[in-house]
Amino acid sequence: MNEQIKKQILEKIESYKTIIVSRHIRPDGDAVGSTKGFTQVLRDTYPDKDIYLTDDDFSDYLAFCGGEDIVPAEVYPDALLIVIDTGTRKRISNGNYALAKEIIKIDHHIEADPYGTINWVEDFRSSACEMIADFCLTFKDRLKISPQAATFIYMGMVTDSGRFRFEGVTGETMRLAGALLDYHIDYETLFANLYTEEIGAFRLKSFVYDNITVTKNGVAYIYMSKAVQDKFGLTLEAASDVVGELSKIRGSLIWVAFIENTEKKQIRVRLRSRFLGINDLAIKYHGGGHNMAAGATVFSEEEMYALIEDADKLLGEYKSTHEGWL
After folding, report:
1. What class, spelled out in words, does domain 2-194 have in CATH?
2. Which of 9, 53, 81, 235 has the alpha carbon at shortest distance from 152?
């Protein structure tokens, strides 16, 4: 089935003079890597086409990847829009997306909103970049994959899979990553950009370790107030990333970071888990995502504590019916 869809996507790409690539709001490494890598492949392969990458949102920690294009609204009616790593249209970081003549959706989230003319969705993939790697390598005799493009795609595979540790990583994931390495990726520089930290980041971790709360059944959570964000000079994205620090507590199979967003009068929620799914929990609280990595939004402290209570109940039920969960 996916071979047919990939051929349809390539045919659409070749039939359009103007192509615009977009991703989701608050872009992560997968969103940035998949769109930048795919855009570079298309530009190198089709130099006579007008190919743009546009994004109405930005993540500071990925600034080393460079900026995007400003595309006037009048360009869209004759353009093919390719949206990558974006499950629903409300999360598309492109206010003009609906103006496009046709939309292709390439995504690895659980299907909830088939908004494309063509929808290529494989929720078993570890990243959208894994799908882009699959696509480009399937047609490697027709598409030009430069070291720069391969590096962007590899970056998304690495970051969205937790350096190949998370659910969804398969032998095929590793084979595709290995094939990308053959395109002379400078992974030393890439990893230095991704994983070295300022001294302030270490001080932040100290704060996080001192302020983790663990529920009766083992849900670990932390609340990052606006005051804390200001104290450490954090963007919303950087504050959200602290959720990863909670995953190291033995017996804690669900971990949650709550990030106050005073500008939007809401609390952003990052949900992660090990062994059991939390996507349904995220959906209940205005969000969604993957089975063990999702996001949500709550609008009061009462709703925040209700989510914690639901998570604790979910984890208690899991532990009472399963063994070997450490």
Report:
1. alpha beta
2. 53
Q: Report, in this order, helix, strand and coil percent for the chain, each rounded to 5.
A: 45, 20, 35
1 pLDDT band, cuts 50/70/90, is low
User: Has domain 201-321 been given CATH number 3.40.50.740?
Assistant: no
- Amino acid identity for residue 157 in this structure: M
* DSSP class per residue in 70-101: ---GGGGGG-EEEEES-SSGGGBS-TTGGGSS
Between 50 and 200, name the one with better pLDDT. Answer: 50
Per-residue pLDDT tens for 185-207? Answer: 988 899 888 888 778 778 888 99
Query: Hey, what are 176's tokens?
Result: 């595709």
> What does the block give as tokens for 269?
């929620």
pTM of the model: 0.75
Q: Give the Cα separation of 65 and 190 in Å (integer).
A: 10
- The pLDDT tens digits for 63-91 are 887 888 888 899 999 999 999 999 898 88
Name 159's Cβ contacts closer than 8 Å, sequence gap at least 6.
Answer: 28, 29, 30, 33, 127, 194
Give the contacts of 304 (CB within 8 A, at least 6 positions apart): 223, 258, 267, 269, 298
The domain ranges of the chain are 2-194, 201-321
